[in-house]
Amino acid sequence: MTQSTARLAATGLTATTVLWFTAALSMLQPLATDLYLPTLPGIAAYFETSVVTVQWTLSIFVAAFGAWQLVAGPVSDRYGRYPVIVAGALVYCGASVLAMVAPTIEVLIGARLLQAVGACSCLVGARGFVRDLYAPTEGARLLAAAATIMSFAPLTGPVLGAYLYVAFGWRSAFALLAAFSLLLATAAAVKLKETNLHRNPHALRIAPMLRTYAEVVRSPAFRAYTLSASATYAGLFAFISGSSFVLIRVLGVSTTAYGFSFSTMVAGYLVGTLVCRRFVVRHGLQRTIYAGASLQAAAGLAMALLAIAGAHAPASIVVPMFFYGIAHGMIQPPAQSGAVAPFPRAAGAAAALMGFTMMLIASFVGFWIGASYNGTVYPLTLTICATSLASAAIAFTLVRHHGDVAQHG
Fold this sequence. Notes:
single chain; mainly alpha; Growth Hormone, Chain: A; 84% helix; globular
């Protein structure tokens, strides 16, 4: 019996249950964004507000998602993953209802903040129970498998969101999110079991909490993997926050066609997670990230060069983003697993600090994309190129020198 099998048996869970709940809980974050992306220009028109103001519905989500991880992680270390997950799904449901009936853009922004709190709690809980049950390489493989399943949500989300918008208006996306999260909260309450068998009674005390975070930050492996995850997510979020305005307003694609364009990138991500599942077992965390970062740099450079050369067509952005998506699917699972691997007794705190860093950087990128929008393709394409080059630089320096976490079981 392997160590992971023994841990599963001790909690009464099966590998299949862990896989599907990890995937479903991970869906809440991308669904909250991707399902309503095609409606962003429509929301701006409905509330008669600017692109920068509407971008706040994205940026506030990312900023709140990042900040709340610093709370949700220690809470899950103190009280367990189960209550954090169930409460998070219920908060997400309530926030989705509030967004659905929002009378002003300010209320919609506030609802998005609450929605982020719920999604964040669920994801932190999911990452925590994966670390509770699996060693680093096994955990990366499970996260990659869960990401493969999860990717069907953002793959179909923009297309479904576009059709819902055309048929019922922008509020229908939040109605669907409310229904999905209510079902998930019910299923989690009934099926999940607690996996944190070594709860830390001091996790929420300020001084021990700060010491734990300081210990996490001092780890070179944590810094390497967290920056790797942050760089690849920053480029992805640049596309998430800016692509609807560039493709619809600048390049003239329809709302429905935009949904399919966005799904092309997600299809790449799906391919990347499938590649990651095999590659990480054969070659380990570090080499998987090297391969993904190399592909990502090539995709980012291609997008920037096409823009500079004057090839201003949807394909000049969508095709490179397909390959960027493949690279993201290869980098993100091993980076997430590697960042929390050195901390078996503080997995929640480590996952929280990693997520906070990712979302903080992404929120700045989102602010930049909104502020720099000038009716051209250049701010979006050049920003994605910059993040892809940063991803490669981090992979071949920090991850190469500090990314060996095989000894952490």
